[in-house]
Amino acid sequence: MQTRNTYRALLASALAVVLLVAPAAYAQDQQAGQQDSSAQAQGQQDREPLETFKVDVNIVNVFFNAKTKKGLLVPNLTKDDFEIFEDGKPQTIKYFSAESNQPLTLGMLIDTSGSQAAVLRMEQEVGAQFLRQVLREKDLAFLMSFDVNVELLQDYTNGGEDLRAGLRRTRINTGGGHSGIPGMGGGPIPTGNPRGTLLHDAVFLAADEKLKSEVGRKAMIVLTDGMDQGSRMSLRDAIEASHRSDAMVYVLLIADEDMYARASMGYTGDGDMKKLAEETGGRLIRVGSDEKKLREAFEQISNELRSQYSIGYTPTNQKKDGAFRKVELKAKNDDIKVQVRKGYFAPNAD
């Protein structure tokens, strides 16, 4: 536990470095950027303060999608169509609504390790189009890349051009590292790992250091082959951080499994990524290296993020013990499948 806490502090400090003001050489740019930051801060204040699967005093809010067995979204449902359980005990639904217009905070994480060299340009183009289409006036997004380092390419913004520019700054990195000013498209978050694909660390950082402090609906989209190498945080750490930040995770699996077979390498990324996505209320979508499938995947995610319902209840268990509470949401109609996260962490007494 001490090692994990030490590394957690290192990661937090490292990300803080990325967000720090660059030295005097960049002072002029920083002065101009302060006006944009003020505008962004005002925009965040204007965002509706509805928590996403967050225990707020006595209320737990749960965002979810309802689908047919064929995967089609089901509109026009009411609270009477559902029942909800916490740790196996039925709960009384107090609030219910469709949340298509609630502000969205989105993080896009892109794998820039060597295995993604053939698909990076496709991800840059299609990802930029998706962000431009899905983000509305009160929404915010940030970009991170991960390889042997984890790098914040673009901090929170609603600007399509800023996000496009951030995506253009992604580069395949197989161990040589980046150079430049942290957070300006060149400087990585130092990890002490000489090689690898720091997938778990990236998800942990995005959840714990970015999304955790935000309100409203929150999601991560991770473009990767699902293979982690060198992370100090485990898959369980990444999932726990996602739960604590109340963020669902979508994984676009961009993997050439035949390549792993030809290289006599075992491929296990799909199982880990499915667990990450499903436990947090998101979904794993297999893309391979097919641009059409990538576009379709982004369209599906966009539709799901804009077709969510919200249920609120007062948990019968009022203990503030920091424990994980398992939540099960069921549709009374067996033909409807609910896509929802598996639970939440109760607050601590302090």
User: What is the H/E order?
Assistant: HHEEEEEEHEEHHEHEHHEHEEEE
Question: Any idea how many domains?
Answer: 1
Q: Total number of β-strand segments?
A: 15
Principal-axis shape? globular
* Tally of alpha and pi helices: 9
Would you tell me the overall average pLDDT? 82
- Level-1 CATH class name: Alpha Beta
User: Percent of residues in helical segments?
Assistant: 25-40%
Strand content: 15-25%
Task: Give the radius of gyration.
Answer: 20 Å
CATH A-level architecture:
3-Layer(aba) Sandwich
Poorly predicted spans: 16-39, 47-52, 177-194
* CATH fold-level name: Rossmann fold
Q: How many angstroms separate the termini?
A: 20 Å
Query: Pairing-aware structural class of the strands and helices?
Result: alpha/beta
Strand order of the largest sheet: 8-7-6-9-10-11
Q: Would you identify the CATH H-level superfamily?
A: von Willebrand factor, type A domain
> Major sheet, described briefly?
6 strands, mixed
Quaternary structure of the protein: single chain
Question: In words, what does this structure look like?
Answer:
The protein is α/β, with parallel strands linked by helices. It has one domain: 3-Layer(aba) Sandwich (Rossmann fold), CATH 3.40.50.410. The protein contains 9 helices and 15 strands. The protein has a 6-stranded mixed β-sheet, sandwiched between helices. It is globular, with a radius of gyration of 20 Å. The model is unreliable at 16-39, 47-52 and 177-194 (pLDDT under 50).
